[in-house]
Design brief:
This protein is an all-alpha fold. The protein has one domain. Helices cover 70% and strands 0% of the residues. α1 packs across α3. The chain starts with 8 loop residues before the first helix and ends with a helix.
Length: 132
Amino acid sequence: MIAGAGSDLEGQAARAAALDVIDELFADAEAYDELADLTLDADGLVRALEAFIAYYIYNRLLPQIDERLTRYADAARAERLDGDLRQLIRAQVRIRLRDVDPLAVDWSGAEGRRLIESALRSVYGVLEDLEE
C-alpha cells in the first residue's frame, strides 16, 4: 500500500500525493490499455518518488498554504505564489535527494523522516515569510 486510509493529516497528505503522482504519470492516457503499458526505469521511478515527496509536502502544508494565500486580495498573485511554492517544494526535494540514493532510503525509517522533515521545515519557513 502506498498510502494509508488517510485518517490523519499525514495520511491524507500521503493519499492525495499518491493520487497526484498517478494523475501526473497518466495525464495523457485515455484508455486502460495505455495505463497498463506504462513502465518506469530507475530514473523514472526516482522522478515519481520525487514527485510523490513534493506532493506530500505540498498537501501536508496545504492548510497553512491556503491560509496564507487567502490573505491576498489579488487572486492572480495568490495563484502565482502557489505555483512558485510548488516549484520551490520540487526543488527542495531534488536538493535533498541529490546526495542519497532515493531507492535505497528507508522512507518509513529515520533517514526518510529526516529528509522529509527537513524539506517541510524549509518550506514552512518560506510560508512564514509570506506573512510579512
